[in-house]
Design goal:
The complex is a heterodimer. Chain A is mostly helical. Chain A contains 4 helices and no strands. The chains are: A mainly alpha, B mainly alpha.
Chain lengths: 154, 508
């Protein structure tokens, strides 16, 4: 009784739906309207619970095939997510301009590591141009106020 | 109607609107030509630039992206055999063989002119059908709207690739996103999980941007060598000249096929979230079935290029009808357009055309003019598109994600949008890795509030739940939902039987 990708996916959805369903039980009804704030969420979550149970059972019952896993660079994906997460955290601290220079440089260098000084120069130019061009277009011409940094002051 | 349309065309020719339209069409063509960058991603990138514009300028730019993107994919499909967008897949079947045979100019121009004619046929449908369909939708009560949204969701869940159960779960997860935050009827907080960011509910645009942008970019990043430049097979000196009269004659001398494949594109565009790729493949299949020489397909048959391109451009007109008449996005691109309308305080749906005639007819005009702009831009830039595809992903992806971040930030000038983008980016990528389709999820997120509001309105107006079934339109739509499920189950079982007969195991 080994679960495949579908089974694990179904279990994750089931667990989240059960937790949210349990939380809806704490929602208080409003005497002014016939249905409280939990009425519709319970329908949706009930449906999600049933469907995810169906997926888990179908996975347990179904015939599984072993397919040869394709070569994938998941470490690079994790790094890209990590760098983007740091960028999100840095935006209110360093401000858009500085954080964007650092993010673009890091993300680009991770995707295609520079081999020489020229490569690093290319990464630096890309990072600075992206940051400044985006900043000026949005802030000056499209009236979008970009994040300011608490640490840097700009 | 014609007076308003003419006014719209006149207005759209003013520099204020014409420039965003041309820039949008150009962005669409470039995005469409880049393998690995879809029209959805292009429109997501263009979205933040429209925040500072007036609604019609923004819609003109987005319509341009949609039209340009639908045609842009054909350049790389023909010259490199790589479809720039999924909707150009069928164009590679005959476009690339024709180009390899020494007729790249003929292949490209057959595609460009077929896109133009298909787009115009889609435009006729858009202009002619939106008003009458919106008038029908005006007769709808909450029962009908509830059933219509359920039908849209069930269709998408049933028709996407993969298993029906996963499609349904994906749609249900989209609905779950809309129950977090607040109750849309009484405005009370619910299921905020103690997080301030959830107290006002989850805005759908950062969710959409995060899910689509990250799912696509990270799926490319995980492929070894994805960041490298694409240089192989590119002949920058390729000659793209052709006799336009001859090419135009090749298209218009097949009026039935042109019309039929365009109609297929329109109809598939009207149906939510099936998309241009299905339209072009289905149209290609039809053209082959009705051809006197089906054996020539796959070897550079002009009919194959015409069918694919006419269909995927007519598809745009169909998708725009759904959003303008019913407020239901036909695909991810129109979902972003719906979001842009919401940002400007405009409600799409049956009242859209009567309450905002200038905007609606301006959009029609933008659509028609974009077809001409697309032909002109492709005539000038087709060769340059080959250079564009050599832009390395290590340059493209970080820039795209910065623009996504700006889009999420600019929605409310708050970091909450950026964090939602990031969290749903991870979620979207996880969905792809677990094999859950994204389209039903997004439709669930967009329609969730409306489904809840209309369900509660219906039950508060009359507590008899049978009205959902006994009111003819509502009952018909629910029956159509059941039929769409039944068709999906039948289709999946047939596919499983075929796989079993072929000796392979079925992957539920």
């Amino acid at each position: 009784m080994k679960l495949s990708r579908d089974g694990w996916g179904g279990l994750a959805v089931l667990a989240a739906s059960l937790l949210l369903f349990w939380l809806t039980l704490g929602l208080k009804d409003n005497p002014l309207v016939p249905f409280g704030p939990g009425f519709y969420p319970r329908i949706v979550l009930g449906l999600t619970i049933l469907l995810s149970l169906g997926l888990v059972f179908a996975d347990l019952k179904g015939k599984k095939t072993e397919s040869k896993p394709e070569k994938r660079n998941y470490a690079l994906v994790a790094l890209q997510f990590g760098v983007f997460g740091l960028y999100c955290g840095a935006l209110p601290l360093l401000g858009f301009r500085v954080a964007t220079v650092l993010y673009v440089a890091a993300a680009s260098a991770l995707l295609d590591p520079p081999r020489d000084a020229r490569g690093w120069l290319r990464v630096a130019v890309l990072a600075v141009v992206t940051s400044l061009a985006t900043y000026y277009i949005f802030e000056r011409y499209l009236q979008v106020l970009m994040p300011r940094g608490r640490w840097t002051g700009f | 109607m014609f007076e308003l349309l003419w006014q719209g065309i006149e207005g759209m020719m003013a520099a204020k609107y014409f420039v965003p339209l041309v820039v949008g069409t150009l962005a669409g063509i470039v995005g469409g030509a880049l393998p690995g960058v879809t029209i959805t991603m292009t429109i997501i990138v263009v979205l933040p630039f429209t925040f500072g514009l007036d609604p019609l300028q923004g819609l003109a730019a987005m319509t341009g992206v949609y039209v340009g993107g639908s045609a842009g994919g054909l350049v790389t499909a023909v010259l490199l055999g790589l479809p720039g967008t999924p909707s150009a897949i069928a164009t590679t079947f005959d476009g690339h063989p024709m180009a390899r045979r020494g007729e790249p100019g003929r292949a490209i121009w057959l595609g460009i002119w077929a896109s133009f004619f298909g787009g115009m046929i889609g435009g006729l449908f858009l202009i002619g059908a939106t008003g009458p369909l919106a008038r029908i939708a005006l007769e709808f009560g909450p029962w009908e709207f509830f059933s219509l949204f359920v039908f849209a969701l069930s269709m998408v869940a049933g028709l996407v690739e993969g298993t029906l159960l996963k499609g349904l779960i994906s749609g249900a997860l989209g609905l779950v996103v809309t129950i977090l935050g607040n109750d849309p009827v009484m405005g009370r907080e619910r299921l905020t999980l103690g997080l301030d960011v959830l107290s006002g509910g989850i805005p759908f645009l950062p969710v959409l941007i995060g899910v689509f942008a990250f799912a696509q970019i990270m799926s490319e990043v995980e492929r070894p060598g994805a960041a490298s430049r694409m240089r192989e097979g590119i002949d920058a000196a390729v000659k793209l000249t052709a006799s336009h009269l001859k090419v135009l004659w090749e298209i218009v001398s097949r009026p039935v096929m042109l019309l039929w494949t365009s109609i297929i594109g329109v109809v598939i565009g009207v149906l939510p979230a099936i998309g241009g790729s299905a339209a072009s493949v289905m149209a290609y299949d039809q053209a082959k079935k009705f051809s006197r020489h089906p054996e020539r397909f796959g070897q550079g048959a002009p009919e194959g290029i015409i069918a694919s391109e006419a269909s995927n451009n007519a598809n745009v007109g169909g998708s725009l009808v759904t959003i303008m008449a019913f407020g239901i996005p036909g695909d991810a691109v129109t979902a972003v357009m719906l979001g842009a309308l919401t940002i400007h305080g405009i409600q799409s749906g049956p009242l859209f055309i009567s309450q905002n005639p200038q905007l609606a007819y301006g959009m029609f005009a933008a659509y028609l003019i974009a077809q001409v702009v697309m032909v002109v831009l492709l005539a000038v830039l087709a060769r340059w598109m080959l250079r564009v595809v050599t832009v390395p992903k290590s340059v493209l992806f970080p820039v795209v994600l910065v623009l996504c971040t700006v889009g999420a930030w600019a929605l409310s000038n708050a970091m909450s949008g950026v964090w939602i983008l990031f969290i749903f980016g991870i979620f979207g990528y996880a969905m792809v890795k677990f094999g859950f389709p994204l389209a039903p999820f997004i439709l669930g997120v967009i329609l969730g509030d409306q489904i809840e509001i209309n369900l509660l309105r219906a039950v508060m107006t009359d507590s008899d739940p049978w009205l959902f079934l006994t009111r003819p339109i509502s009952g018909g739509l629910l029956l159509a939902s059941v039929l769409s499920f039944a068709a999906a189950i039948w289709q999946h079982q047939r596919a499983q039987r075929k796989t079993a007969a072929g000796g392979g195991g079925a992957d539920f």
